[in-house]
Amino acid sequence: xxxxxxxxxxxxxxxxxxxxxxxxxxxxxxxxxxxxxxxxxxxxxxxxxxxxxxxxxxxxxxxxxxxxxxxxxxxxxxxxxxxxxxxxxxxxxxxxxxxxxxxxxxxxxxxxxxxxxxxxxxxxxxxxxxxxxxxxxxxxxxxxxxxxxxxxxxxxxxxxxxxxxxxxxxxxxxxxxxxxxxxxxxxxxxxxxxxxxxxxxxxxxxxxxxxxxxxxxxxxxxxxxxxxxxxxxxxxxxxxxxxxxxxxxxxxxxxxxxxxxxxxxxxxxxxxxxxxxxxxxxxxxxxxxxxxxxxxxxxxxxxxxxxxxxxxxxxxxxxxxxxxxxxxxxxxxxxxxxxxxxxxxxxxxxxxxxxxxxxxxxxxxxxxxxxxxxxxxxxxxxxxxxxxxxxxxxxxxxxxxxxxxxx
Length: 407
Known about the structure:
Elements: H1 5-12, E1 14-16, E2 37-38, H2 39-43, H3 67-77, E3 81-84, E4 90-97, E5 100-107, E6 115-122, E7 125-135, E8 142-146, E9 151-156, E10 159-165, E11 182-188, E12 194-200, E13 205-210, E14 220-222, E15 229-233, E16 239-242, E17 249-255, H4 256-261, H5 279-285, H6 288-291, E18 307-309, E19 315-317, H7 320-330, H8 338-341, H9 376-379, H10 400-405
Parallel strand pairs: 3-10, 17-19
Antiparallel strand pairs: 1-18, 2-4, 4-5, 5-6, 6-7, 8-9, 9-10, 11-12, 12-13, 14-15, 15-16, 16-17
């Protein structure tokens, strides 16, 4: 487990968005003779649990180098009323095109501004990708948004479709909230799971809790640990901890392989609804974003177009047995969210002041033992005599005001 931390930091600090949406295929394999698969067909399967075959439109006009032609093809393939299930508004697709398999999505995150993004790649060569943004009234695109119904009307080359942005995940949790908790949003992940994203200010921590009011998308199997109750998704390999005090199922583990391969089961970090006013929470939980140039109100980086903070409070694991051992050691007997926060801790929160804060002789190497979430603004005030040993007993998430007076 511990050997995976650098990779987790590298891959989950941010999530691509806007003009370059995450490039994920609609499914792991073809459906029907056409090989065409659409997002909604997987999440709302037909009889027998299998997505129905689709009659694909003629593909002759589609060119891999032309995002407009790919958009026109997917639009023609979609039903008159199409459903966009994941909560960050991705409509996934996958279809064969000559020597390639085109895998990607239409992203409706900016429907309020009457623009969409298209991104796709060759499934056999992830480096071979294309992205584009389309606006209403440009290049033949007609787009309107009806917020009261959550419907986007999209037309191109004489073909019009209505895309319905599913909001069924947004209902508040039915379980009682603990003191201080903030319900950020309901989530419908592309894995099919319904979750609740919750923030707890006392530890500046996010976590995902299973929405037990909605059906699970797969069977579960009990883990081997005798000290904690862990449950594993049969296909997703998501790992959930059942908290003894509350009965909640908290997401604690996602497979590193699924993250690397950018599959349906890479975790809910990329399905946080795009219009949430969460900047203050993100700056508290992830101090590095301030030194990275700051965020807009919805968690998009101001200096990195198309990049959004990834909220990933769970462990990226290689070995399930190793994850179980880690979670067992991290769980506490506590009636507050501290019971599981250690098991969901994100190592990207261990931000160290960059070289720019070498103020008064305080070098970066002295910070190697500082607790998580110390603030860069405070680092600049530390004098030459302040070494890492001085910080050894500070608690995680200590307040900046404390740092300024503690030398």
